[in-house]
Amino acid sequence: MDLAFKCEAMKTASIKYVSAYLPENVVFNQQIEDKISLNGKGINHGLLEKLFGSYTRRVASDGTQVSDLASEAGRVVISANKDVVIDLLIFAAASSDLIEPATANIVQAKLGLTCPVMDIKNACNSFVSAIQVSSAFIESGMYENILIVCGEKLGEVINYSPLNNEDFKRYISGYSLGDAGAAMLVGTGGSDIIYQKFRTWGEHWRLCTVEGGGSMAYRDDSKYYFQSDSGRLKTIFRDQAPEFLNECLNEAGWKRGDIDCVVSHQISSTTTDQIAGCIGIPASKFVNTFAKYGNTAAATIPLALNEAIEIGKLKKGDRLVLLGLGAGVSLSVQLVEW
């Protein structure tokens, strides 16, 4: 009887509010293409649209910090939830203001909060990892309301001067990167997070890296650029995602036909179509933001989720799938009853 009582009394973590912040500066593909110098020459206009399907992305000004993007999104959440006391602040992004201390400390100061803070870093899955950690804290009773914030300013890791064609192939994914901020309030009494599962294949960590800034290449300026083997990454996601999602849906008791909306990470405008084809969920149920914003790393999922809410693609009572794809390589599935 004691066990049954505890199960009935257990809290269910939920998403209470989502916001996003986009820098005002809109950059078009041609402007990116004009900055690229390959063997001392430019590249043809239209190449990035052909490769990625992107048209524009948002780029923060030089003086803007990662913490500024996160704080702008966080202020929206705080303003809309004035009666809520934030117990914990988590900064979750691939980017950061600096190595030490945690960027969350800087965001805390900018937002005027007094709660404990921490950073969570897991490449493009940083934000969804923070949702999982927050859920555990909420359901344990340790905290009641957790603010997750994200800021991605990615221009500094783009190499516009590849030395040769091999360099160009390694760095080309960087030309799709964009900047954004996002925030989410996790607590109880909102849209319930009913299932979460993560899986990682660490043997593939070399496929997508920014090596500079850590012990591997701390003072090597040539290592501070985003590089990836996009083809191999896509193959791994294509091979692993369908089986993983099927496993998650079976464990949660969901059927594909029950799903109303899918918000996934996006590395090209065709990502959602490719995932839809692999996992057997209609592409019309996905939220595709890549053409407008590019790859905004860990901000991609909350940014797309915010858009789904604003355009009415996600409604109360809908069944939502958050599908994370991250370097490392990692996959995540989170099921939410909106």
Describe this structure in words.
The protein is of the alpha+beta class and about 350 residues long. Residues about 1-10 have low confidence and may be disordered. α8 packs across α9 (about 270-280). The protein has helices at about 1-10, 30-35, 45-50, 65-80, 105-110, 125-140, 165-170, 230-250, 270-280, 290-295, 300-310, and strands at about 15-20, 25-30, 55-60, 90, 115-120, 145-150, 180-185, 190-200, 210, 225-230, 260-265, 320-325, 330-335. The two termini are about 30 Å apart. The radius of gyration is 20 Å and the shape is globular.
Descriptive keywords:
338 residues; alpha+beta; nine-stranded mixed beta sheet; two-stranded antiparallel sheet; 11 helices; 21% strand; globular; disordered N terminus
Structure summary:
By secondary structure, this protein is of the alpha+beta class.
SSE string, helices as H and strands as E: HEEHHEHEHEHEHEEEEHEHHHEE
Poorly predicted spans: 1-8
Anisotropy-based shape: globular
Query: What is the CA-based Rg, rounded?
Result: 20 Å
Structure annotation, total helices? 11
The secondary structure category is alpha+beta
Distance between the termini: 31 Å
| Major sheet summary line | 9 strands, mixed
Question: In percent, how helical is the residue content?
Answer: 25-40%
Q: What is the percentage of strand-forming residues?
A: 15-25%
Mean pLDDT over the full residue set? 93
Main sheet: which strands, in order across? 5-4-6-7-1-8-13-12-11
Number of strands: 13
